[in-house]
Automatic annotation (TrEMBL):
Coiled-coil stretches: none
InterPro entries referenced in this protein's UniProt entry, alphabetically: Aminoglycoside_PTrfase, Kinase-like_dom_sf
Lineage: Bacteria, Bacillati, Bacillota, Bacilli, Bacillales
Domain Aminoglycoside phosphotransferase: 76-226
Transmembrane intervals: none
Protein known as: Aminoglycoside phosphotransferase domain-containing protein
Record-linked Gene3D superfamilies: 3.90.1200.10
Length: 286
């Protein structure tokens, strides 16, 4: 894909002619997309209604696959049109804000579990694991790479002893109940909130792996309410995972360590709160 060779107005004109979008649908503005992608908001009667996204063909293909697989999820935007050659997609706009005004984690995480994660289905498309654009030979390899990336980002923020103890969890967190098609980036930065409730989940980075990954990723994606009660209450709602409490905690500790690594690199304003949460969870490390 090269967005320079896509005539956006020409494509929109064709979509209007086909009745896919309204005759008066027009570009309202651009939004931040991937490094190479472009995202346009389309408005009808001056109100945002659609997202028009241009990206690499493989990215468009895998994102379309996720939207089609979970068409009945109340939280995913509805796919309106997929370009046959995978240059772009059009899906519904979800009004609200990401990150903020999200209410209690127990509430939004419960709805995420019930209205997205419990819709997940087994993937039979590949014998590999991880992100569909960068597949790995095993779930353990995916976890090993995540751990080493976090260690590099953390530097000396956490002692090497913590790294070694988290590394010792690899056997536990690499056991899987099944391989599912996952959203892959279930964090508050991709959750749309309105009136202190989660109303949408956007910008997937599709992958194949155990459902517990998307669950713990969401749980650890903000430093608030990282307590055992919130974890156990919301996990109890999850249909596609049957691990015991000990392995659940192992997965949270592993995910939290990786999350702190990401935080140190791109979200330093949350770092002190995450480090405080780490003191709580490292008490569960053997």
């Amino acid at each position: 894909m090269s967005q320079q060779r896509i005539d956006v107005e020409g494509v929109l004109s064709t979509l209007r002619e086909k009745g896919i979008i309204e005759d008066n649908a027009k570009v309202m503005g651009t939004m931040s997309g991937t490094t190479d992608g472009l995202v346009y908001t389309l408005a009808v009667h001056e109100e945002p209604k659609y997202i028009f996204k241009i990206d690499h063909k493989e990215s468009i293909r895998v994102v379309s696959k996720l939207h089609q697989a979970y068409i009945n999820s109340p939280l995913l935007p509805k796919l309106i049109y997929r370009d046959p050659v995978h240059d772009f997609i059009v899906y519904t706009y979800v009004a609200g804000t990401t990150h903020y005004n999200r209410g209690a984690k127990k509430e939004w995480l419960s709805r995420l579990v019930q209205d997205l994660l419990n819709h997940y289905s087994i993937s039979h498309d590949t014998d590999k694991w991880g992100r569909l654009e960068r597949l790995r030979d095993s779930w353990r390899e995916f976890n090993e790479r995540s751990l080493e990336g976090a260690r590099m980002n953390l530097g000396d923020l956490l002692p090497n002893e913590d790294y070694e103890r988290v590394k010792s969890l690899l056997d536990s967190v690499s056991q899987v109940d099944g391989k599912y098609l996952l959203h892959g980036d279930t964090g508050v930065h991709n959750f749309v909130y309105r009136d202190n409730e989660i109303v949408g989940v956007i910008d997937p980075s599709p992958m194949v792996g155990p459902v517990i990954y998307d669950y713990t990723y969401a749980y650890c994606s903000s430093p608030d309410d990282l307590d055992l009660e919130t974890l156990l209450t919301t996990y109890d709602l999850l249909d596609h995972s049957s691990i015991d409490k000990s392995r659940l905690i192992d997965n949270v500790i592993f995910q939290l360590y990786c999350r702190i690594g990401i935080c140190a690199k791109v979200h330093p304003h949350d770092l002190s709160d995450y480090l405080h949460a780490w003191e709580y969870w490292r008490g569960y490390l053997n």
